[in-house]
Design a protein that fits this description.
Alpha-Beta Plaits; Rossmann fold; binds NADP nicotinamide-adenine-dinucleotide phosphate; alpha/beta; ten-stranded mixed beta sheet; 430 residues
């Protein structure tokens, strides 16, 4: 039975764990709008307490403790908002919550990527909700859109910019002419990148989000471990410059495509045509494009991180599930395993940058190996200001396994090749 207040309005009680960047945004929105929600949503949302490591950071009039499990046990709220981060602590918290009948709302993609199966199953068995709108693409309402607006569709492809930090770095490398390290330092100064940016720049964070989003879109489990993940650390200014000359912009693209042989899922730097709308998604913005049989291509874009943008998604989940409290949504989050194909089975055009010695015959040698592996060259460009010479080739469409076989042979030619070859796929079609 739902509790009601003195005027008969349903009272929904929630606790907040973690009052950092996102948690403090939730508190700001809650204390600004809780009265408005009574009128607009017909709900009396009661914050029963906050558990956070440093209570002095909470400036709002609410009980604050450092002991999250005690708070849950004492108050037995309808919902707990987990905004602490990490994996072990929030996983234990989720188990305590479910055991006592409390639903979970979280922004924690790493937690769901590692422990999602267990969390979703525990919640399902108890007929409880797990809201994670804020865990993927921050303020973009992508989870709800997939669950409701596109519920009648069959997905064919999903791709997007799911990490704002790397998009900010790539944008600044292009527009300011900065190298990777300078752009990263600026991102850290502005608070877009963590002190340890590994998860962002190596594509792990985007991979966690892609796993959640693709599983939901295709209704098949696409585990993070099956996603081919490459980061942006090997990119140089010359790649950004040549991409632009060729009519492309480099983006860290997360994508998952349904093919007859299985799903092709990857996070990797990709040359995106300047005609493709995703190439214009700049700085810390995120974007998701989807192709479904029924709708064709669609695009959603917005802020993927930050205090209020992310908090707005947490609040959206809270309001959505609070309104349905007592009427379990049966939202599925566990799926049969998807058949994920090795990356080599994909076909694409490729941008290749070879670092070579300045000697006659080098190009012919590279072209010969590519030819032996059924890879034909569409165009060739060269930057010969100093050694190693940078030779840029754009291929026609090729099977990635063939390209990898060719590059293994070419990169072993230490007499002509000075650094490992950079190879990036091209995204052209809408
Ligand atoms: N920041 C974003 O833009 C963003 C976007 C999307 C998703 N997320 C996700 O949202 C979650 C929170 O991120 P955030 O940026 O808000 O992190 P944050 O600023 O580091 O905040 C985490 C908060 O949790 C507290 N905390 C940590 N461990 C705790 C524990 N064991 N018990 C109680 N409190 C604990 C921290 O205390 P202290 O104050 O003492 O450190 C801090 O207040 C993460 O899962 C993150 O991946 C963040």
């Amino acid at each position: 039975m739902c509790q009601v207040d003195s005027v008969g309005m349903p009272v929904v009680r929630f606790a907040l764990v973690g009052a950092g960047v996102v948690g403090s945004g939730v508190l700001d929105i809650y204390f600004r709008d809780k009265v408005l929600w009574k009128d607009r949503e017909g709900l009396d949302l009661e914050l029963v307490g906050v558990a956070t490591r440093t209570p002095s950071k909470v400036r709002h009039p609410v009980e604050v403790t450092t002991d999250a499990s005690d708070l849950l046990h004492r108050t037995r709220p309808d919902f707990v908002l987990e905004l602490a981060g990490g994996i072990d602590f929030p996983f234990e918290l989720a188990k305590i919550a479910f055991e006592q009948g409390t639903s979970l709302i979280t922004a924690n993609k790493a937690l769901l990527s590692e422990k999602g199966e267990e969390i979703f199953k525990l919640a399902w068995d108890k007929k409880l909700e797990v809201g994670y709108e804020a865990a993927v693409a921050g303020s973009i309402p992508i989870i709800r859109t997939f669950r409701t607006g596109l519920a009648g569709c069959r997905f064919e492809k999903l791709s997007g910019i799911l990490n704002g930090t790397t998009n900010y770095i790539l944008t600044q490398m292009e527009t300011q002419g900065w190298d990777y390290h300078r752009a990263l330092a600026k991102a850290q100064e502005l608070g877009f990148a963590e002190a340890d940016p590994t998860f962002d720049v190596e594509g792990v964070d985007a991979g966690h989000k892609l796993s959640l989003l693709a599983s939901l879109a295709f209704q098949r489990k696409i585990p993070f471990s099956s996603i081919w993940t490459e980061g942006i650390t090997k990119l140089q200014s010359i790649d950004i410059r040549f991409a632009k000359q060729l009519g492309f912009r480099i983006k860290l693209l997360a994508s998952c495509q349904f093919m007859e042989s299985g799903f092709l899922a990857s996070v990797r730097p990709t040359l995106v045509s300047l005609n493709h709308p995703i190439s214009n998604v700049q700085l810390e913005l995120n974007a998701v494009t989807y192709n479904t049989i029924e709708t064709g291509m669609g695009l959603l874009t917005g802020k993927g991180a930050g205090s209020l943008p992310t908090a707005s998604a947490v609040i959206a989940d809270l309001l959505y599930y609070a309104k349905r409290r007592g009427d379990w949504t049966r939202e599925r989050n566990t799926f049969e395993a998807g058949n994920v194909s090795p990356i080599g089975t994909g076909k694409s055009r490729f941008y290749l940058r070879f670092s070579t010695v300045d000697k006659p015959g080098v190009l012919a040698e590279i072209a010969s190996v590519l030819g032996q592996n059924s890879i034909s060259i569409a165009s060739m460009h060269q930057d010969s200001s100093e050694e190693p010479i940078q030779v840029i080739l754009v291929t026609h469409s090729a099977l990635e396994a063939n390209l990898r076989a060719a590059l293994e042979v070419i990169d072993a030619k230490v007499n002509i090749i000075k650094e490992n070859t950079v190879s990036l796929p091209l995204l052209q079609d809408l």
